[in-house]
Structure formats: C-alpha cells, structure tokens
Design goal:
Length: about 350
C-alpha cells in the first residue's frame, strides 16, 4: 500500500481511535459516520487586540459529518442505545443535536423524535433533521421547556434520551480535547468555547483531565466559556426565562450541565463570560472574510470572547489559545446572507462586467 493509500484508510471514527478511553466493549455495535479528526487551523489577523506572539487556533468542528461537534457525542449515544436494544431516540434541540441524532438514528435503523421551539431552528439544521427522517415536533416554548418535556417522556416511554444529559454524549465529546492535544503536542494554554446547555465545556474539561491522568499531556488548559449576552445564565447566576440572541444554537436559559461547567471553570482557574450579539457577529464575519473559515454565529462566540479578553490585556506572548468552532456556517445560511453584501445584478455583457469589476 502506498503512503497516500495508508493515509486515506487510517481514520476509523472516534470510537475506534480512542476506544481505550471510552465505555465501549467488543459487543457494542459501533454506529459511526467516521466523525472526529477535525482540523486545528491557526488564524492570524483577526484582531489588533491579540498581541503578536500569541497563537490562536480554531478547532473546526463544523467539518464533522453533520456539520457540528454533536456527532462526537451522538456516535457514542446511538451506539450505546443500540447495544441496549433501543428502537427509538428523542431529543430537545436548538438544531444541531436534532440533525446529528436524526442522521445517526437513521444509520442505526431507529426512530428519531425531535422537540424544538417553533420558528427558532436555523434552516440548515431543520433540513437535516427532516431529510434523515426524524419526526419533528414543534412546540410553543423554548429549548428549556422542550428539554423538560423530553426528559419526562423518556422516563415514561421506551425512547432513549440523547441530549447531553445522557452521559455517553459527553464521553464522545471529550475526544475533541484529546484531538486538540494530539494536534498541538500538548494542551493549549487556553481553551475557548461557546456555552449553551453547558455539556461541551464539561466534556472538554473531562477529556483534558483524563489525558493528563494518563500522562499524554503535562498541563491542563484554562477554560474560557462564552455565552451570548441575552442568554447568559451562568454569567448572571440565574435562570433566564426568555433568552434572546441571534446565536440560536446557544439560546438557552437553564443549562442542564450547569454544575459541571462551573466546576470546569473553577478547577481550571478559568472564566465564563458574556459576549454581545454584535461582538459575535463581528467575529463571525471576520472569521469568514479574513481567515476563510465559515462557522455558525454561536460558534464565533469563542473567538469573540477571546478578542474581548485580549482587549483587556488578558493574553501574553508565547501562549496558545484554541477556540472551538462548534458548527458549520452553512447551518444558518439566512444569517450569512443577512451579514454580507447582496449580489449585484448586471447586464450579460462584457462592458457591464468590466465596469462592475473595476468599481
Ligand atoms: N455551538 C453550537 C453550534 C451548538 O449547537 C451548541 C448546542 C453549542 C455551541 C453549545 O453547546 O449546549 O454543549 O453548551 N446546541 C444544542 C443543540 C443545544 O440542541 O443543538 P453546549
């Protein structure tokens, strides 16, 4: 086999790659779309505030099979559901969980039920859940209400809950921390991440601690979580009954993994802070226009937060920061179009085209 062929063949999906760290056995039927192994990309020039000599990387989780980090958790949750003989799964979602659950459930031959807030799901995510055959139930209530409903119904009916309160979800998602360390050769100094239901920040912290525990890394990062200002229950220390933000993925007022997220913050000496919609959109546009990286608005909260802290002199030369970009920009095409110059219509002539290019 040539080197090129060997490289092509190598990635077996995250359960196989990190099997020794995951609660699977030989009898677990692995349901995979070969998720994981996403690129860690260095970005420069995003903000003057970031001092020279500070290196900023993005972990581009939008390149997972359904376009978000949820696939890491879902390969585990659906594999374990299959092992337990489940025929149906259910989740509440702001969109990405539903897309991922629908895809992995389809692959496992399970029914998938999704409960969402009516009118609140970005177009890309909606289309994914539907095309994979999920039964989508829209309610007159936000994500927090939907999560309460599905938690209760999963106790009454034979449907497996695959939200991140399912512990297998965090087990899968912690592999992103392993990858970051494998890619850098060490833990970064800071790990910046958007926070919604607070599962992912908890999963990363668990992953870093486990890698440190087995000596794969020599230090732990400082965890920096960022919530949207209109949906910042962990920053404000209270439930937000009606969260509001353009970052629909993290429009959550009552995070289920609150306790774990606060522990990640405190144990790492980190912070959970708020960024405004304007700061999020600014980072979202700069990532696309200056770094060539298209993520969804919620994902840009990690970069917006780093820019904000950099402005306060938070970072020092020689430090390495990893910002998690949790979902692909194509998830929310409406927001992209609304955030850019509209197309210009011109006559189909060489003169008009010449004129337009010069202008
Ligand atoms: N970024 C994106 C793109 C998300 O979809 C989510 C959560 C988060 C960040 C926050 O992650 O909840 O683990 O703190 N989306 C969930 C969903 C709620 O239903 O798709 P978290």
């Amino acid at each position: 086999m040539t080197v090129a062929m060997e490289k092509q063949r190598r990635w077996p999906g995250l359960i196989e790659h990190y099997r020794e760290f995951l609660p699977v056995s030989d009898s677990t039927p692995v349901v995979t779309l070969l998720e994981g192994n996403t690129p860690l990309i260095e970005i420069t020039g995003i903000s003057e505030a970031i001092p020279k000599g500070v290196r900023v990387y993005v972990k581009y989780e939008g390149l997972n099979p359904t376009g978000s980090f949820k696939d890491r958790g879902m390969t585990m949750a659906i594999s374990k559901a299959a092992e337990e003989g489940a025929k149906a799964v259910i989740c509440a979602s702001t969109g990405n969980t539903s897309a991922s659950a629908a895809a992995y459930a389809a692959r496992a031959g399970m029914r998938c039920y999704v409960v969402v807030e009516g009118g609140a799901i970005a177009m890309g995510k909606l289309s994914q859940a539907l095309i994979h055959g999920a039964k989508m139930l829209s309610v007159d209530g936000n994500f927090d209400t939907a999560l309460r409903l599905v938690r209760e119904v999963a106790q009454r009916l034979p449907v497996k809950l695959v939200n991140s309160v399912n512990p297998y979800r965090l087990e899968g998602q912690k592999t992103a921390a392993f990858e970051v360390c494998d890619q850098l050769g060490e833990a970064p100094d800071f790990l910046a991440i958007p926070v919604g239901n607070a599962g992912n920040i908890s999963a990363y912290w668990k992953g870093f601690k486990e890698y440190r525990g087995v000596g794969r890394i020599g230090k732990l990062p400082v965890m920096l979580g960022f919530q949207a200002a209109g949906a910042a229950p962990l920053v404000e220390g209270r439930v937000i009954p009606s969260p509001k933000t353009i970052a629909t993925a993290i429009k959550i007022g009552d995070p289920a993994s609150r306790r774990l997220a606060l522990a990640a913050r405190d144990e790492s000496g980190g912070r959970i802070e708020a960024v405004s919609d304007e700061e999020i959109l600014d980072a979202y546009q700069k990532l696309a226009r200056m770094a060539g990286v298209f993520c969804e608005p919620a994902s840009a909260a990690s970069v917006a937060g780093v820019v904000k802290l950099a402005g306060k002199g938070f970072f020092q030369q020689g430090q390495r920061i990893v910002c998690v970009l949790t979902g692909h920009g194509l998830k929310d095409p409406d927001r992209a179009i609304a955030s850019a110059e509209p197309p210009v219509t011109i006559p189909a002539t060489i003169e008009a085209l010449t004129e337009a290019i010069k202008a």
